[in-house]
Design a protein that fits this description.
- This protein is α+β, with helices and mostly antiparallel strands and 217 residues long.
- The chain has helices at 31-41, 76-85, 129-142, and strands at 3-12, 23-24, 47-56, 62-70, 98-119, 159-162, 176-187, 195-204, 207-209, 215-216.
- The radius of gyration is 20 Å and the shape is globular.
- The relative contact order is 0.27.
Length: 217
Amino acid sequence: MPVKLEVWGDGALFSRPEFKVEKVSYDVMTPSAARGILEAIYWHPGLRWVIDRIVVMNPIRFNNIKRNEVKSTISARSVSATLSKGGTVLPLYTAEDIQPRAAMYLRDVRYVIEAHFILTEDMGPDDSAAKFQSMFNRRAGKGQCYHHPYLGCREFPAAFRLWGSDEEPRGFEEGSRDLGFMLYDMDYSNSADIKPMFFRGVLHNGVLDCENMEVMS
């Protein structure tokens, strides 16, 4: 059976991959970000989440922020070499490695994620769809999660609850809005050649239909 989860927050940033330095958000939540929120609440190897619809409840509004970020990272190769051969990993001093960057993010967001899960071959002998459904509803109803879900970036935490109304959630506007090409997810079928998948996003009456979209890799 499908689940409906309401999520909201003061801000969100669903980064466009074409902007590498300055972060710019998509207009709405991406399906992969929605899946990440569901997995933060309940994940099991015996199921795979599939996003059906994302209902945009609040008007789409942007804001700009400037912040200082550390521009370098410690090499994983140097850490591995230090662990195996000994020595010292050169530290990073944030005061000397700061770079000002800008970001365009969404403010005051609220969505309703409608999704279902597919059972996989990794489910145990005592597992069932009813068991998974009950555990997700219980955890979401109590506000439990494996790690706190976030809206695109960890600096934008998400509040969540089960959609508590018998009425269907409605989007914030009527008509259609073309969102352009958006990231759908990453294709991990070939671990040696991981590819991004995109789709042409369109809001119909404030709803992003993820069931009937054409996904391109």
